[in-house]
Amino acid sequence: MGEQRAVDAAEPGFADKFRTPDSPSQTALLTAGDSVVLELAKPGIPAKFIACEMPAGFVQDLKDDIAAIRAAASDMDSDDQEGVASTEEAEGKSGGWQTGEQPPWAASSAPAWPKPPSPTPS
Hints:
mainly alpha
């Protein structure tokens, strides 16, 4: 957003309220978005951006985008949990093998290592 820099020229420190996060993680970006929305809720702040050619509905657009990202993340988390539940159900909730049985990867066709020789008493 170059608009905050334009306002910052007239009001030093204004752009500091609208910094991008150091980390590009989804959590950091959503937190920064929430912070911007809170700042934009203050009287007169949106008008400063609109005066710099931001669309009149930009605050609502930002809120909608943040909500859509959160909904998509929630859906993905839900899908992950459903996948775990399906896997557990398919495997009988015991990892896929019965108690006392070895998992498939434990049965190896490779020969066992020989025991090392016993130490010779000195």
